[in-house]
Amino acid sequence: MTYDGYILGDGKVIGAGELEQFAKAAPGAGQPKRLKDDPFKYRVDDVIPPPEDLAALARFLETNTEHYRCVKAKATDVCGRFAIVPRDPDKPGDAAEKARLQTFLDGCHRKLTFEELLERMWTDYEAVGTGYLEVVRDVAGKLPVGLEHVAAVTVRARKERAGFLQRRGVGKVFFKEYGDPRQRDCHTGEEAAETLPEADRATELLDFANYHPRSDFYGLPDFLPALGAIVGNLNARDYNLQFFENNAVPQYAIMVSGGDLDGQVKQAIAAYFKDHIKGQAHKTLIIPTPDERTKVTMVPLGAKVSEGGFTVYRQDNRDEIIRAHGVPPARIGIIESGNLGGGTGESQTATYKDAIIEPRQMRLERRLNDKLIRDGLGITGWIIQFEDIDTEDTDRNSQIAERMVKAGLWTPKEGWHFVGHFTDDEYQGGEQAFMVLGSDLVFMATLDKKAEVSAKLLDQLPLTPAPAPGQAPGTPPPAGA
Asked: Are 2 and 19 in contact (CB under 8 A)?
């Protein structure tokens, strides 16, 4: 159905072709959203341009809720918790080595914890495709003594694998690739033939890239295929805001038969709304028109034309963004079924754990354990291991344990173990099964003992043959019986 025009919330009457133009002419609409120019001078700096504008990719964290929540969830789930464990599970590690590793991890940054550093770096990994950690060595240039997060949007890879360049405003600093034994000047990036003062030495960057075939030097984020969905939702939001901010929400659609929506008809409609219909929602609408053959019909719309039309569109975009990240909807606070892995709750989280989180944890562990801990610190007996995310539905498991314990099928201790609340060392007792009958507890061991006593009593009773038909109980059977 096509309409000839619309009546806005302020009583203004516009033609159908003016609706889109009205939105575009609204204050703040049509303003360029391009980010400032890339500060890197690629020919002068001799660095390699990334396949996408990194600052623009990072800016999408500020424009879409689902994208932001997915990025933060993955960063936390990958790096949030870890433990120091022996490199060889069958051989106990040296206690002094473990203490040295723990000391390094506890003091690697003057302000942030090791986990916070990793989460910042991995946020970059998920948001722009690459993350960086700066490794600071001691004065002698031997052992690592500190770590820093370096924002990925400020870093570019240099040609010839000569390291990296960071720019912030007019300032710049050069880094080496991690493990490069050559000395480089941090101010010029040039290789030094002799030992440089500590203040002039380039430090090293550990880079973590989400590989994409378009670049050997930079990664690209998982959400890139859903970029259109993010931009679509942003445009839908801005379109709605432009109408609401200008009180330009169409309230009625107009259909004109036997004439045109010319200036006289618009004037008659506007006058009617101004003088007659305000405050009288159910009043009959009779509009005088210049021609008796002209008939005007109006259909109430409210805000549906600008807002309701985007509801399904925005939800589809939201789902596409979540699918691109591979995060279960429940993980970011959306409760609905069947969006990932064909299931809900535990099954979705298990798929997310196996397909998204664990592979990332394994890659990160390998780089940190081999490059930083073994090769850098010289610690060979210990590694860090990231903890698995919890895929169990605790409430559901608690309900199962409660039913099994009350039915006498499990002991309380077995229920505790199933839910994972206690270990044998943490809590003693709970080894007797019981049944809950009304308000009473009946221990299964008592029932078993009663059954045993009853069986013994039955065995001790004399066996008396059943009376024959017609025979009185306790009388001898008839002759010949």
From this structure: no
